Amino acid sequence: MSQAKVDKYKEEKSVRKETVKRQKAKKKAVKVVVVLIIIAFFAWVGYSAYMDYQARQPKTTTEINMDAINEFRGLDTSDTE
User: Fold this and answer.
1) N or C: which end of the chain has fewer CB within 10 A?
2) What is the count of structural domains for the chain?
3) Does residue 46 lie in a domain region?
């Protein structure tokens, strides 16, 4: 081996731990981001399906007679002019 190759090998060996550590951290970050994207996608699909299900349910309406409250407050509920 030439001296240049030996020096290059020693340099790579001296920073190998840092390089490997950086690569592992990058891989882990990529995995976390991918998992978060997958979770967000399934949450969106679930939410959309739930909203679609709710939209298809029959609407219930309740009628309230407010005459007693309006009389108590002194409001006129009759439609006389």
Assistant:
1) C
2) 1
3) yes
**Domain annotation covers residue 79:** no
In a domain, 31, yes or no: yes
Return mean pLDDT, the chain.
Answer: 88
pLDDT digits (tens, 9 = 90+) for 13-50: 888 889 999 999 999 999 999 999 999 999 999 999 99
pTM for this prediction: 0.57
DSSP letters for 12-74 = HHHTHHHHHHHHHHHHHHHHHHHHHHHHHHHHHHHHHHHHHHHHHSPP-------HHHHHHHT
Structural domain includes residue 16: yes
Q: Note down the domain range covering 33.
A: 3-73
